[in-house]
Amino acid sequence: MNILTNSTSTALWHEIIHEAEATCRITLKEDIESYLVFLLMRYMNKPEFLKQIIALEFLEGVNSKSAKQRLTLQEVGDKCLLFAGLYPKIADKKLVKISYFVNLGQACYVQISEKSNDLYEGLGRQFVSLMDVLQSIRQYTKHCPDLLPIQAYELWSDTGSHRALSILKQYTQHSQGIPVLIDLKNTRNK
After folding, report:
1. Averaged pLDDT for residues 33-49
2. Residue 52 has what DSSP assignment?
3. 70 neighbors 120 (Cβ within 8 angstroms)
4. Among positive and negative, which fits the CA dihedral 102, 108, 111, 115?
5. 22 near 132, Cβ under 8 Å?
6. Among 46, 19, 45, 18, which Cα is nearest to 34's?
């Protein structure tokens, strides 16, 4: 583990994100990385967002006029990214899968994207990688992953998360098992 040495909160968050990117073997574009840093800084002292009902905020955003809609959907996308990345256990408390937050967050960012290749389109497209980076910040140890096997499997099968697959491989390391995707929809019809 590296010792973080920067003195300003912005520099410290950049350092944390860089270390998490290295852990995940992900390189974020500078604008996406900066957005993530400022997102973390914005919500650092706002724990009350964890208690908010995200679906209601999403519906409010969708039914709002353009400027308020954009702001509300951005906030919902940001919160979904934080839930999926830093607080994946919230999904259990809210009785949803982590992929619920991934899908909702991606939809919010894509909805407010004005053109392809803008910041929000990039956030939507790279949502899973951003989630992986944030989850690696909070990773406990390699011997005690922060996702349970079923959570890791669902996250991997629902979103293609490389980090979730890595965690699955850690769980199956001693059994020589290899995770495989099962298409339950087509299995039931046979």
Report:
1. 88
2. S
3. no
4. negative
5. no
6. 18
Helix 127-137 vs helix 30-43: crossing angle, to nearest 10: 50
99, 106 contact by CB (below 8 A): no
More reliable by pLDDT, 147 or 6: 147
Q: Model-level pTM?
A: 0.82
Condensed to tens digits (0 to 9), the pLDDT of residues 77-131 reads 999 999 999 888 888 888 899 999 999 999 999 999 877 679 999 999 999 999 9
Domain boundaries, the chain: 9-140
* 1/51 Cα distance (integer angstroms): 32
What's the token pair of residue 50?
């964890």
Task: Quickly count: other Cβ atoms within 10 Å of residue 52's Cβ.
Answer: 12
Residue 33 contacts by C-beta under 8 Å, 6 or more apart in sequence? 14, 17, 21
CA distance 34 to 171: 33
Q: Of how many residues is the chain composed? A: 190
Angle between helical axes of 127-137 and 9-24 (0-180°, round to 10): 110
